[in-house]
Design brief:
Structural class: alpha+beta
Helix content: 10-25%
Low-confidence stretches: 204-208
Mean pLDDT: 94
């Protein structure tokens, strides 16, 4: 496939990964990754899903995908392409390379039978025109632990917190994470090898000012019921210690384990700030703190969802309330999704099939991606003029049905 005259678009061939990855690194303006990190990304890369745009021997564009399973409302884990490593060399912008790669990628996802593709955008403005809708937020916070108290209403007496080696404890932490995945839409079931990303920079070469990674386990009767991985960044001023604890990852299986882990993080000696770069919008600690205003909350876009096979994706999830609605979906990029679809579903499952009936809601595939995980409401999009109701009552019924109990969230980039 040729994106422009003299440029060839193809999947990676043996021996091309180093040039391809260097093109990506240059496009993002960063220094080359440390050898250990680079080798891990080499191992995780799926060459058959990695596209390169080549002008002779020069790689001038990159796009990849990882084979994930994504948690959706109802707890099912659905095959999804995790779009990643997208770049175009500055010398070849405005020549159609990005459009060619994204269209080729969507065609490939469709041929693989994956109902959707997902991504975390470096520039959100880019992906809407390819049908990606912002479906999940991430919450960041910088908590003043000198001023903010943490109430723990659940007894933590049965929970033991102990330090553990970040690498040696990987299996125990991953077992907890795997149990959490079906409970929250947007979480990724990690393939073998992905857990290594959590500790690949444990030697202190990573973020948080080079602070080494630490880990604590929450245990009950010798069984791991939660964990937290974090970095302690020391800092001193004229008034004394003002260190910052940066939380990389935290999961727990019950309220007491959650409370015990947060209480530990709030009380680490010589620190007065707790930094949370990426947490769910409805995270547990929000309901335990004494003063949320001093937590400096910030909400930003996170996961973007693109339904590649509309009926398969809508059948894959459950619905919070009974729903029967005819959707007219607009999708100029993937024309097989265009048309009218009758969705009938509830808490036990759903059916979705083409229909000749009159449409009741009209929306783009992008907007369907926004609401798919249940964190963005159809009513809100309709208020913005992006969803159109043709049958009175259809909007309220469908909006209620699409919502999820927990806010969708993706715990790490890919």
């Amino acid at each position: 496939m040729t994106a422009e005259s003299g440029t060839e678009l193809r999947t990676l061939r043996p021996g091309e990964w180093d040039v391809w990855f260097a093109t990506l690194e240059r496009a993002f303006g960063g220094a080359p990754k440390a050898p250990g990190v680079r080798e891990l990304w080499r191992t995780l890369t799926e060459p058959e899903r990695s596209l390169g745009a080549w002008a002779g021997d020069d790689c001038v564009g990159t796009a990849g995908a990882f084979s994930f399973r994504l948690s959706v409302p109802g707890g099912a884990l659905v095959a999804a392409a995790g779009v990643t490593m997208v770049s175009v060399a500055a010398t070849h912008r405005r020549r159609g390379l990005l459009t060619a790669m994204m269209r080729r990628q969507l065609d490939d996802v469709h041929l693989r039978g994956e109902p959707m593709s997902v991504l975390i955008a470096s520039e959100p403005d880019i992906y809407g025109r390819f049908g990606y809708g912002m479906a999940a937020y991430q919450l960041s916070a910088l908590i003043d632990t000198d001023r903010v108290r943490l109430a723990a209403p659940h007894s933590t007496d049965t929970v033991r917190i102990r330090y553990a080696d970040p690498v040696a404890s990987l299996d125990a932490c991953e077992a907890v994470y795997a149990q959490r995945v079906p409970l929250r839409p947007g979480m990724l079931a990690r393939r073998p090898g992905w857990e290594q990303l959590a500790v690949v920079e444990a030697d202190g070469s990573g973020p948080a000012g080079g602070a080494p990674l630490q880990c604590v386990l929450a245990e009950r009767d010798g069984v791991t019921v939660g964990y937290a991985r974090f970095r302690n960044r020391p800092e001193w001023d004229a008034g004394g210690p003002r260190g910052t604890v940066v939380v990389d990852d935290l999961e727990a299986l019950d309220p007491a384990a959650h409370a015990a882990l947060w209480r530990f993080l709030f009380s680490i000696d010589l620190t007065s700030r707790l930094s949370l770069p990426n947490r769910p919008a409805d995270d547990v600690w929000l309901h335990l703190v004494s003063d949320v205003r001093r937590c400096q909350l910030r909400l930003r876009d996170a996961l973007f969802v693109r339904l590649v096979d509309v009926p398969a994706a809508l059948r894959a999830r459950t619905y919070r309330a009974p729903v029967e609605v005819v959707l007219q979906v607009e999708d100029p990029v993937c024309p097989w999704n265009e048309g009218r679809w009758r969705l009938t579903g509830g808490v036990d499952g759903a059916e979705c099939a083409r229909t000749g009936a009159d449409p009741e809601l009209v929306l783009s595939v992008r907007d369907l991606g926004c609401v798919y995980l249940g964190g963005i409401s159809l009513t809100a999009l309709a208020s913005a003029g992006r969803v159109h109701e043709l049958r009175p009552g259809a909007l309220a019924q469908a909006s209620t049905a699409f919502t999820s109990d927990l806010a969708p969230w993706t715990p790490h980039a890919f």
